Amino acid sequence: MEWSGLWIGILFGVFFLSLLLGIPVAWALGGSAFLVTAFHQWSGGSVVEWSTFSLSVERIYGLIENDTLVALPMFILMGHVLDKSGVAGAMMESITQIFGRFRGGLAMGVVVIGVILAATTGIIGGISGAPGNHVSASHDPRRVQHVIDHRNNLQCRDIGHSDSPSIMLVVMADRLQLPVADLFSGSLVPGLLLAFLYIIYISLLARLLPTSAPSLSILPVTNQHIPWRGMIRNLAPVLLLVIMVLGSIYAGWATPTEASGLGALGAILLGILHQGVNMKVIRSIFHESVHTLGFLFAIFIGASCFSLCLRLLGGDDWVRSILSGNMHNSYWVVAMMLILIFVLGFFLDWIEITLIVLPIVSQVVNDITFPWAETWGGDKAVLLWFAILCALVLQTSFLTPPVGFALFYLKGAVAQRISPRELYLGVLPFVLIQLSATLLVFFFPVLVHWLPSMRGR
To answer: Which residue stretches of the chain have pLDDT < 50?
Structure first.
């Protein structure tokens, strides 16, 4: 076991060193696995051999044959269509006209727009960029500092909700061998809870510190007319698309793969009706979609090699041996794993954690029991609860430096008008809110299991 731990440490050491050297993640994952395998063979080891490492080819081919992952390109295409066609921007404008009249209303509107966009896309750039650009372009940066900081968190909240996590939950379902529909429905209540906590915080901040969340100067608090007809025209089609995609999954009328294809088609039709689609936009949409999909699957390939090497080195047994001393306390074991994922989120993106760490720690989750498990379906209920907890914890990885992607998107939207220090301090309360929501789900599993149990009736 000591030698196993040493080789596992070398494997992760080579991986993190590769990242520090600026090597792309996909190459760092696959390359570190290859180098450690070669060094292990050179040193006379027999645990990881080339003949067994070649199984990675079959694992990669299995990715191509995986029906569940077919939903990924459809969700990606859906997000880019809504972003590039201007549908998301028009929706943001309408939401702003409703909520921007009140103190803190713009930030609340951003929460609402995030919930809607989350249901139709799984792309962090599209969810962060459209509201962030709209807010930063419309108002004085000092007056909307809180709003922009909130937008960051909203974007991450998306993944905690069954909407935006489209991509994350599809990947989780594949890695943990759980039904995608159960993950979508199980994440809905925690996601709405997280959005609700955001709104409570914004309301309190607007009341206690009015200057931090002012109403918009373009829509002062008066009886100014709101163009309801245009607002309904911008919002209703997208809401219908949300109902069509998620409703078909929750009701069992379509698989997530079929629903994602339907959603992509619906997004294209919305873009055409919005008159925001031409040949230049179409080229941009498909270019960005293929680029994003290529990025994801490159990481899939690298992670397949890395996880195979880690498993051959005894990574599963190594993690289980570390936690075996606390197996009598199931809640403590889960808490330790969530803390590990939280810390890794400072340095790794969600996809690396999902592809590498979750399959290993899920083996430990399968070995522990909870008194409420039988009420909601046994071991699968525990794994579903753990998956949603991980999805919530991974929200923080979008907001924590140095690799918080939402921070980069928002910094790009506001350019030099807000310093990185202000941005980091601004997201801190939302990270705490995300962790608070995680604690609520941790102690009240019913928040995860209620809706999936209703689907099963």
So the answer is: 1-2, 125-165, 218-223
- What gap in Å lies between CA 395 and CA 72, rounded to an integer? 19
Amino acid at 161: H
CA 201 to chain centre: 22
The residue with tokens 């600026």 is 22
Whole-model pTM: value is 0.81
Give how far Cα 348 sits from Cα of 19, 164, 316, 352, 396, Å: 10, 19, 20, 6, 11
Locate the domains of the chain by residue range.
Answer: 68-301+317-455
The H-or-E segment that residue 90 falls in is: helix 87-99
Q: How far apart are CA 160 and CA 166, in angstroms?
A: 10
* Residue pair 167/61 in contact by the 8 Å Cβ criterion: no
Answer for the pair 130, 236: CB distance below 8 angstroms, yes or no: no
Distances (CA, A) of 123 to 48, 129, 167: 37, 10, 8
Which residue, 168, 181, 182, 161, is CA-closest to 118? Answer: 161
By CB atoms closer than 10 A (0-12, 13-18, 19+), residue 64 is exposed
DSSP secondary structure string for all residues of 174-215:
HHHT--HHHHHHHHHHHHHHHHHHHHHHHHHHHHH-GGGSPP
